């Protein structure tokens, strides 16, 4: 893709009907009538484009605000889940540090393994 061609295409779309020396006029009007008529037509076209650009920039602004709010909520959720996860890890560390807790964990793990073995044998 040629960026110069895109720029010319975009510029031509924005300023279609307007030439470098002014607006091309038909020969049925006097020079003053032609200038005013063409100027008003060009002003209406530019006004429509300005309104379109204003609406488009407003839509972009709303979209950016929406995404910023969503990212803030996601950041807050990540912070809260990080807190919960660190609390859980602290509890696991406490469980594995004591000997009686290790025995309890071994007992629970062995019951789970026995239950799974019996479950698969009866299926």
Automatic annotation (TrEMBL):
Every T-SNARE coiled-coil homology domain range: 33-95
Family annotation (InterPro entries): BET1_SNARE (IPR039899), T_SNARE_dom (IPR000727)
GO CC term, one of those recorded: Golgi membrane
Transmembrane regions: 104-122
UniProt topology in membrane: Single-pass type IV membrane protein
One example of a Gene Ontology biological process annotation: protein transport
UniProt KW keywords: Coiled coil, Endoplasmic reticulum, Golgi apparatus, Membrane, Protein transport, Transmembrane, Transmembrane helix, Transport
Family: Belongs to the BET1 family.
Biological role stated in the UniProt entry: Required for vesicular transport from the ER to the Golgi complex. Functions as a SNARE associated with ER-derived vesicles.
Protein name: Target SNARE coiled-coil domain containing protein
Organism: Parasponia andersonii (Sponia andersonii)
């Amino acid at each position: 893709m040629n960026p110069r061609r895109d720029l010319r295409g975009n510029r031509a779309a924005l300023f279609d009907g307007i030439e470098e020396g002014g607006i091309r006029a038909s020969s049925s009007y006097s020079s003053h009538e032609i200038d005013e008529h063409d100027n008003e037509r060009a002003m209406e076209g530019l006004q429509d484009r300005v309104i379109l650009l204003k609406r488009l920039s407003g839509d972009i602004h709303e979209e950016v605000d929406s995404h910023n709010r969503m990212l803030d909520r996601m950041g807050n959720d990540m912070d809260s889940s990080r807190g919960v996860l660190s609390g859980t890890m602290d509890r696991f560390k406490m469980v594995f540090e004591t000997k009686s807790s290790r025995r309890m964990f071994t007992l629970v793990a062995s019951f789970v393994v026995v239950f799974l073995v019996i479950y698969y044998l009866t299926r």
